[in-house]
Amino acid sequence: MRVRDYDGEEYDAEPAEGFAAAPDAFQRLWTPHRIAYVDNADGTLHGRDACPFCVAPTLPDERALIVARGEHVYALLNLFPYNSGHLLVCPYRHVALYDEATHDEVYEMARFTRTAMRVLTAVSSTQGFNIGMNQGEIAGAGIAAHLHQHIVPRWAHDANFLPIVGQTKTVPRLLGEVRQEIADAWPERPD
Fold first, then answer.
1. Which residue segment(s) compose the domain that 176 sits in?
2. According to the model, what pLDDT value does residue 87 have?
3. Residue 134 and residue 76: Cα distance in Å, rounded?
4. Does residue 162 share a domain with residue 85?
5. What's the pLDDT tens digit per position in 110-124?
6. Whole-angstrom Cα distance, residue 176 to residue 82?
7. Residue 89: enclosing H or E segment and its boundaries?
8. 157 noted as active-site residue
9. Number of folded domains that form the chain
10. Based on the domain organization, do 75 and 156 belong to the same domain?
11. Are 155 and 176 members of one domain?
12. How far is CA 170 from CA 84, 151, 157, 158, in A?
């Protein structure tokens, strides 16, 4: 069977029927498209010690999941989204905290956030948003050294038992598809 990976490359995948296995009580959620993250476990996409938000703008938009670029900031999809369309707005400059950002960076982050909300509503009928920044590791920032704002689209009933019981989040669409849809709808001049 032919399947596509994160970069759109096709490869052969064997069906699981007939594999040796001992039955157990676990259910399996097969997500072959996430092999890109496993394949990048050594950090080659960013370099082991490199800041992914500094490296992303140096890559092609499709590879970095960038949907729009501005003068001071850019918007990209979260590689590990809470929901489909989960965007991040980052300054190009490597700065950790909001109060260290320049006036121009703060202003453009605000414009990109408003535009992201409008684009997500247009392309996916978003019904609400969680918007925020975690400042510092102690506050939950996964990448504390580089300022970034989360824009998480929300819909009625978008959460179910799976994250609570199974510690698994389902995301119904592939990142590359979502990136293209948002990038295509992003206006030339953000609001």
1. 52-185
2. 96
3. 17
4. yes
5. 999 999 999 999 999
6. 16
7. strand 87-91
8. no
9. 2
10. yes
11. yes
12. 9, 18, 13, 10
